[in-house]
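Budget justification note: compute hours in this period were largely spent on complex prediction jobs such as the one shown. Inputs:
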Amino acid sequence: MAVFNPELYAGNIITSRIRLARNLKDMPFSLDEKNAKDVVKKVNRALVKTDTFNLYFVSNLDEITLEAMKERHLISQNLIDNNVSGAALINPDESLSIMVNEEDVIREQCFMKGLMLTEAYKRLDAIDDELAKNLDIAFDENLGYLTACPTNLGTGMRASVMLFLPALTESGKIEGLIDEVSELGLTVRGLYGEGSRAEGCMYQISNEITLGISEYDIIKSVEEAVLSICRVERELEEKLYVKRELITMDKAKKAYGVLTNAVLLPYSEFLSLIAKVKLGSMLGMINISDTQALDELTVAVRPANLCVQYGRPLGDTDRDLFRAELVGKKLMKLKE
Amino acid sequence: MAVFNPELYAGNIITSRIRLARNLKDMPFSLDEKNAKDVVKKVNRALVKTDTFNLYFVSNLDEITLEAMKERHLISQNLIDNNVSGAALINPDESLSIMVNEEDVIREQCFMKGLMLTEAYKRLDAIDDELAKNLDIAFDENLGYLTACPTNLGTGMRASVMLFLPALTESGKIEGLIDEVSELGLTVRGLYGEGSRAEGCMYQISNEITLGISEYDIIKSVEEAVLSICRVERELEEKLYVKRELITMDKAKKAYGVLTNAVLLPYSEFLSLIAKVKLGSMLGMINISDTQALDELTVAVRPANLCVQYGRPLGDTDRDLFRAELVGKKLMKLKE
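Corresponding output:
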């Protein structure tokens, strides 16, 4: 397994994520309340040895906080729907999230910046070992890990990489690439739903097949696809943007001008503009070098995260007002 | 005749212009070279008593300088086309321009800011008196002043007012108004050609009829139409913009952000954005109070005027680059 520099295709490769699905031996995938609460305790106890985790119960959190955690990919809608026994253990830097009583009894997740699937898997594997010592994990010699949904059988693993692909999006070539990738047993999704694709130019590529293949082979196939997509993207960027420097710089700076002067900033408008600023930043055409800060801003100003920062739920107009204020301040600061 | 405060409908009423067409008694409208050059001398001599004028011969000026003067409405294409004897006498603040050997032998023009048709006419009338003392002006008791084109017969006068009408443009109501106004013997034109109307929201309203009506009645009819259009415009502005303050402010500030960050700024994009900034300025929603400076900028960055400021002809891309630079600096300064 190659170890990648997190700076590899910086800007294009945003984050890596590994998710493992686990269930309990001789127990249903959906536990009754008593067993469900019991397993939360056991997971909590097991994880004491691995990292510092905060334990959150869905039933103790308000709607906005839950939605904000979902926007940060820490929890899923499926977990939110279980407000009887749904829980999540999350470490302080939010790189690890262990959901309990989701679709599967346990779903372990690790997030890392850059192309770091192997590293993320290794971290999660250590956690998985601790869990196996403390809980009877459902495993079948032929089928591997047993999961609620048969599409997760085997490794129970999903390896995903979040990508920023402006040139493939603008040229329309992303569609053909999505078809090619799906023939390799991989899948590409727009990060914030189908409609947002063209706006934010962000995509998530992940494995579809989990059975009859090793964890490292899954990682390898995703990594290879990511690298090959990034190669094509960079070639296209050279043609579309680098060779048309003035036009690209103009678009990036105008987008920056709108973002730093906006009074109202709907999320979709923000997404479309920040993509232009980020591209300008990646190509050194705009005086902002920290593209990761731009990626973080993209999550921070999603609707629910915005409300969490404001301290209370906000109506649509107030959200757009507060988003404009936050984005303006942040971008001014990044340019200093 | 009412005397208007130049602040009346400030922003909406940009400038007033009076033009008088005159020809010589018993002479053709298009003079031969000898007579044409002779009349330039006579006009120049006559005007010594009225104001300081600079005399320009078309044949002595380069293409860009001529085009720039045309963009500033000081001279016409018809004058430019006469590079044998075409000449213009222009005073230093460019409020007076007397074209010689245009379609008519003499075309006197006076420009003033705000709704100042009467004042402009009085200034021009004094000049016209001086010219009549020194030249034999063609005048017929029944037809009035004789002109090359019969549509100018009588007074030989065109009274025009330049208007900024964003609400009438955006609502599409301008079209109906143009029809109404033309029934009154007046005409409304987009300032920079038909296509630019929706972009810059600028219009010129002027009289069509010159015969069988006094100068002051022409002025009165134009003024009345201007005031009635401005009343409708302001009511619409209240509804479309003042009552939707956040949206209007947002558009104005975003436009300001683009104009102050642009690398490339084609004129049509500039026109559309400066209209939003000006509207925001008129409504006190943006920190720029000098709307006249915005109007002046709109002329200063037209293609030929831009080249004159740069000092030499520029290709399209260089124009857009230089325009972006000039506009950015100017707007930053206006906000200080």
